[in-house]
Specification:
250 residues, mainly alpha, two-stranded antiparallel sheet, two-stranded antiparallel ribbon, 7 helices, 6 strands, 8% strand
C-alpha cells in the first residue's frame, strides 16, 4: 500500500482537523466501575471475556479480556496510524476513486474542496485515541499526555504499549476495543471498498440468557468479500461462509 506524507493535506484541512480536536474538548470520565473490579459470574458460571464473550481459560480469569482479543487489539492499534495516513489521499473528492466508470451527474453541485466524511474519520481517529490515552493516564495517576509531532501515531504507540495493563485492569476495555475496531474497519473500507464488510443477517446461535434460559444471539453478522468463514462478533460462533449462507436462506 502506497504511503503518503502529511504534506498531502491542505492547510484548510489541517485547520479543520485541529479545530475539531479543540472542539472535542478535554477528556470526559467514562461511566464504569472502579479499577480492578470485575463482574462476578453467576453460580456455576465461569468468567467470560468482556470483548468477545468467550469463556476465559483458568489462567485468564484475573483479566477482563482473553489473549486473542488482546492480540487483535494490539494489531489494530499498530495498523491504525498507517491506515489513517493513507486516508489523506482521499481528502480531495473523486481523487483515486476505485469506482469504475464514475461520472458526476450533469447539473450537480460542485463538490466540497475536501471530502468531509474522510476528514471526519481522520479527526475522529485522533480524538478517540487521545481521549482514551488521557483516560488511562488519569487512572494511572500520570500527567496528561504530551505529543511531540504526530498525536495519532504517538497516542496509538502509547496505548499499544499499555494494552497488557488495560486487559487486566481497565473495566471499560470492551468499549475501547469496540471503538478501535470500528475505526480500523471504517478506514479499511474507505481505502479498499472491495474489502468492506457487508451485513448478511443475524446470528442464529442459541445462547444462555441472564435468567438461565436460552435465546437466539441475534447479533448482526458481517461478511468480508473473499473470506471463507464468518464469525459472530458477539458470541464468537464461526461458520463456513457457504454453510452460513444456506442456513440464513433457510
Amino acid at each position: 500500500m502506497t504511503r503518503h506524507t502529511a504534506s498531502t493535506i491542505t492547510d484548510d484541512a489541517l485547520d479543520a482537523l485541529y479545530a475539531r480536536l479543540d472542539a472535542y474538548g478535554h477528556h470526559v470520565a467514562r461511566d464504569c466501575p472502579a479499577p480492578g473490579r470485575r463482574p462476578e459470574p453467576g453460580p456455576g458460571e465461569r468468567p467470560t471475556c468482556a470483548i468477545c464473550r468467550r469463556t476465559l481459560w483458568a489462567d485468564e480469569q484475573h483479566r477482563y479480556a482473553c489473549r486473542p482479543c488482546e492480540q487483535r487489539l494490539t494489531e489494530h492499534l499498530a495498523q491504525l496510524p498507517a491506515l489513517v495516513l493513507d486516508l489523506h489521499r482521499l481528502l480531495i473528492p473523486g481523487a483515486h476513486t476505485n469506482v469504475r466508470g464514475y461520472r458526476a451527474r450533469p447539473g450537480s453541485e460542485a463538490a466540497a474542496p475536501v471530502n468531509l466524511h474522510v476528514l471526519d474519520v481522520i479527526t475522529s481517529a485522533t480524538a478517540t485515541l487521545d481521549s482514551w490515552l488521557r483516560d488511562w493516564h488519569e487512572r494511572l495517576s500520570w500527567d496528561a499526555p504530551v505529543y511531540r509531532n504526530d498525536p495519532l501515531a504517538e497516542a496509538a504507540t502509547a496505548l499499544r504499549a499499555n494494552v497488557p495493563w488495560a486487559v487486566e485492569e481497565h473495566p471499560a476495555v470492551d468499549e475501547f476495543a469496540t471503538e478501535i475496531a470500528s475505526l480500523h474497519r471504517t478506514a479499511t473500507g474507505l481505502l479498499d471498498p472491495a474489502q468492506r464488510a457487508r451485513r448478511i443477517g443475524h446470528c442464529p446461535v442459541t445462547v444462555l440468557d441472564e435468567h438461565g434460559g436460552t435465546r437466539t444471539c441475534g447479533a448482526v453478522l458481517h461478511y468480508v468479500p473473499g473470506a471463507t468463514t464468518v464469525t459472530c462478533r458477539w458470541c464468537r460462533a464461526t461458520w463456513d461462509a457457504l454453510d452460513l449462507s444456506a442456513t440464513l436462506a433457510a
